[in-house]
Specification:
This protein has 212 residues and is mainly alpha-helical. Helix content is 48%, strand content 12%. The strands form 3 sheets. It has a 3-stranded antiparallel β-sheet with strand order 1-8-5, with no helix packed on it.
Length: 212
């Protein structure tokens, strides 16, 4: 028997062992790679959960996109002195100090055209206040007609601000609470004593500045 023929029967066994070794090697590489990707995925998921919990408003469950999304808020502080120092102006239409970009001369003038506007030091509406006295007070009294005029004009202003996509929006027209207040007040207005005064507190509004 030639040396070549002597080794022939062993060749298939040799090939099978090599094949098994190759398969085992590929399996080990696959297992290690899969394990690495599993670890990476788990780490990424953990980071995502942490970001959702501690991140910005866009990750909050109750978040809804609105006109103030991504806008910058300017404020007037919490006192007359602070409002003046921040360059804010008193708005007799809003009954609030507002940052200059949100002070609208046209709407103030339109509100005053009704003739019912005005503030009083007493509930009987006999001691009329000047604008300087209004802005320096903690509160004052206004008539029922003025309250109706205020709410009606506020809705007009709100509509045009949204329709024209104004860059500056005061926090009063952007407030759901104030809109709900005016809606309820107007519904109840016919049942209110026409001579009943409204006690109005001087407030400090903000101004949303939108990009674009």
């Amino acid at each position: 028997m030639s040396p070549e023929s002597e080794h022939q029967p062993f060749l298939p066994k040799h090939d099978r062992r090599s094949s098994k070794g190759a398969v085992l090697s590929h399996f080990i590489v696959f297992a290690i790679t899969s394990l690495v990707w599993l670890v990476v995925t788990l780490v990424a998921l953990g980071a995502s959960k942490a970001e959702t919990h501690t991140g910005g408003r866009k990750n909050d469950a109750g978040y809804r996109h609105n006109v103030t999304t991504d806008a910058t808020l300017m404020t007037c502080g919490n006192s007359t002195a602070e409002a003046r120092s921040l360059g804010c102006k008193y708005d007799v239409f809003l009954n609030h100090w507002v940052p200059r970009p949100c002070y609208d001369d046209e709407w103030v003038a339109e509100y005053q055209e009704d003739g019912s506007w005005g503030a009083y030091a007493n509930e009987d509406l006999t001691h009329r206040l000047t604008i300087e006295e209004m802005e320096g007070s903690d509160f004052y009294y206004t008539s029922l007609r003025d309250h109706i005029n205020h709410c009606a004009k506020m809705w007009n202003k709100q509509f045009w601000a949204l329709f024209e996509e104004r860059r500056a929006l005061d926090t009063i027209i952007a407030s759901p609470a104030h809109t709900e207040h005016c809606a309820q007040f107007l519904m109840d207005a016919l049942e209110v004593n026409a001579t009943q005064a409204t006690k109005t507190y001087v407030g400090f509004a903000g101004c949303w500045i939108r990009g674009g």
